[in-house]
Amino acid sequence: MSELFPDRIETERLVLEHESAADADLFERYRHLSTDAVDPAAFEYIPVSPHEHPQDTAEMLSHRHERWADGVGATYVVRPKAGEDGAGLPAGEAELLADWEARSAYFAFGLRKRFWGRGYSGERADALVSLAFDRLDLAAVTVTHLVENENSRHAVEKYVERFGGRREGTIRNQITLDDEPVDTVRYSISRGEYEASDPDREHTFHDGDD
Q1: Among 6, 22, 45, 190, which is least packed, fewest CB within 10 Å?
Q2: pLDDT tens digits, the chain, 210 residues: what are they?
């Protein structure tokens, strides 16, 4: 268990769960990330590739466990609750990367295409924004999306505006995608903007066996 990050976060419709090294089901994760299983559209705008073999998944999980143990990153598997279509299935992931010196956090989200259009992105963003400010006492959060990714733009703008944040602008050649440099759009929310927005905090953090 990390003393910094909650092991589980519950929102109205979602459960975000950290998979420890002991709990992670390597082959379940591989089944949902393998080249044969994924819809290419889900990877069109993110700088990762489908997994070609289970070793890719094992390396990914190992890297995430190290970041968790070092207190610099938390990755959660997102699963819909009972009553939702696809309840219990891995719908996607939510990631928070902390820069403690800068007192800021960066968010990364991924969602399987089957679960698009339900508002899950904003719901998990609400929980991670609260995690960054209410629990980790950070001063700012940031998120980016590729310039061409209209679906992400709509989702990000909606929750950034809700928390009083802002669009900072386009960052040229920030990442590579298919070995080519691409531009991203960056947004940020400050602690003051978050507190002034009077957030609902409709989620629960659970540690260990809570």
Answers
A1: 22
A2: 458 999 999 999 999 999 776 677 777 777 767 666 555 555 554 555 677 878 887 887 888 889 999 999 999 999 999 999 999 998 988 999 999 999 999 998 888 888 989 999 999 999 999 999 999 999 999 999 999 889 889 999 999 999 999 999 999 998 887 778 889 999 999 999 999 999 988 899 999 766
CA-closest candidate to residue 96, choices 76, 63, 73 = 73
Enumerate domains of the chain plus CATH numbers: 8-199 (3.40.630.30)
d(CA 133, CA 181): 32
Residue with tokens 């295409």: 113
